[in-house]
TrEMBL record:
This is Cadherin-13. Residues 1-22 form the signal peptide. It is a lipid-anchor; GPI-anchor. Its main location: membrane. InterPro entries: Cadherin, Cadherin-like_dom, Cadherin-like_sf, Cadherin_CS, Cadherin_pro_dom. Cadherins are calcium-dependent cell adhesion proteins. They preferentially interact with themselves in a homophilic manner in connecting cells; cadherins may thus contribute to the sorting of heterogeneous cell types. May act as a negative regulator of neural cell growth. By contrast to classical cadherins, homodimerization in trans is not mediated by cadherin EC1 domain strand-swapping, but instead through a homophilic adhesive interface which joins two elongated EC1-EC2 domains through a region near their Ca2+-binding sites to form a tetrahedral, X-like shape. It holds the Pfam family Cadherin. The gene is CDH13. Keywords: Calcium, Cell adhesion, Cell membrane, Cleavage on pair of basic residues, Cytoplasm, Glycoprotein, GPI-anchor, Lipoprotein, Membrane, Metal-binding, Repeat, Signal. The keyword Signal applies. It comes from Taeniopygia guttata.
Amino acid sequence: MQHKTQLTLSFLLSQVLLLACAEDLECVPGFQQKVFYIEKPFQFTEDRLILNLKFDDCKGNNKLNFEVSNPDFTVELDGNLVARKNVSEVGKALFVHARSEHAEDMAEIFILEANERHGALKEIIKLEGNLGIPRQKRAILATPILIPENQRPPFPRLVGKVIRSEGTEGVKFRLSGKGVDQDPKGIFRINEMNGDVSVTRTLDREAIANYELEVEVVDMNGKTMDGPVRLDISVIDQNDNRPMFKEGPYVGHVMEGSATGTTVMRMAAFDADDASTDNALLRYNILRQTPTKPSPNMFYIDPEKGDIVTVVSPALLDRETMESPKYELVIEAKDMGGMDVGLTGTATATILIDDKNDHAPEFTKKEFQATVKEGVTGVIVNLTVGDRDDPATGAWRAVYSIINGNPGQSFEIHTNPQTNEGMLSVVKPLDYEISAFHTLLIKVENEDPLIPDIAYGPSSTATVQITVEDVNEGPVFHPNPMAVTKQENIPVGSVVLTVNATDPDTLQHQTIRYSVYKDPAGWLEINPTNGTIGTTAVLDRESPFVHNNVYTALFLAIDSGNPPATGTGTLHITLEDVNDNVPSLYPTLAKVCDDAKDLRVVVLGASDKDLHPNTDPFKFELSKQSGPEKLWRINRLNNTHAQVILLQNLKKANYNIPISVTDSGKPPLTNTTELRLQVCTCKKSKMDCSAADALHISLTLILLSLLSLFCL
């Protein structure tokens, strides 16, 4: 607004300058004064003179015609501006377009509040008083030019004139700036000889609203004589843009039962025309409402703000009785303040009536029946309810609860999210022998709370009668699993345990028989009548069928029902260890070079399948060596390892060294193992252990053995 005020002040200053030196200038076609300031009255009275506009085309004003931007005003042939009727609101400005056979021009009338007018006139007087330039020095007069947009051909069209007070002989005018020699180029041009300014094409205010040009006077050689002086060209808005709704889609929500006058949403259109004129002054209206029930006028739109509000009573805004909870309004925005001559744009506003929880859910019947077999779990019955609220909201979704008849927590109820039904389930198997009938009291509520004046009634509770059917249940072992501890290697036929199984069907008086179901090692048998378990083979703790010292077998208890029912019992036998495994020696092969300096041949280890204390510490010993000389010895390293050491280098051959190892069991067990020692030839880090002499050595050993036998 400040920029516009400064601009119009400059217009007025230019007019002052023009009037000041009018006696020295030739006739300029157009309005003799282009900018006016008037104080806004309380009301423009019909046919009362507002001001007089002076237009002269310098050729007699033949076929002169005036057009006013606001149709509530007119300009008479003598230039008097009057109102057609009593008018209170007109906006910030009026534009008057004058056209004759030889010229056309635009005048602008600014309507100011009292304080605005005082300030504007004060600034004009101040500027006029401070000019400080003698009249004869005002060489170039470049009056601001106003051009309506969207002018029709022919072009070029005369729009203004630049005047040089000292005459134009021997000089010429030069025009420059954006719209002349800068992009967009060629829009304006000036007659070099007389200063006439022309426009060459149609202007669009929405593209460029103002042009700031410079005009100067140069001699025939191009040397500047006067100027440059600023020439302002303003494009006057025409109503050439329709209102547009740019922010769609437009969707609003209002709660059912809302009070009359509740704001639903705001519609806002955009008009590209000058916002300070009626060309962009919008008014809103509802053209059509769909559906039209229960009232064709469910909503009202504020014509100035665009706010849509409800206008029906809360009782009519009832979602459950409406034909549809969705309304579509065709909204029209019209410029020119809504007058008939205004341009229009439309958009659709969708209004959704949101549900509130004003209806409690109700069971479709007071009592439901269900039948379930004992021992079975899962859904046994679906409870149905009705609710008139919106299915897409928590005002419709049901929440079920069991409020009586479920002390053992054998039942649960959940909501089916698709159907809203209550799915009643058995979660703990029922026992016919304990109770053949159950009665549950079920309550249904909504996820969302009811509105204050609505409450849950008797229809929001229902009874479920459940009948339990008897089935032939399998016998049950006591305890299960069963556990017993036995020593391994107990005699075949030993009693391990007598099992006990009972039939839950106490009313049927059935007999029970026993059998072996799974016995991985085949060690056990069971008496079919009394359930006594005995051994049929030796129990071996070291067996691959024993895990962590425990042997597991399964047994069946079968009743005499028709058909018979079976129960399974698990038996865990923990086996205690006895010293029944001799220790083993490793490794049983060693190699050494015939010229080795380190005669420590090999480290031996011992292991035992039994458990402590029937294992280590182990005792390592060499059997008696034959021959006159001892060739090796054995040294104990720790509880489980010993080392064999040669007492001298041996010739290349294979030697068998008998070694005995004894565990710590009571009684201890001993195992003798031959360590095969290969004496090899070693050259250049290569070991040759081929048995070239092995046969000779073996025969020698055989002969020595035979000789010793004969000597006996």
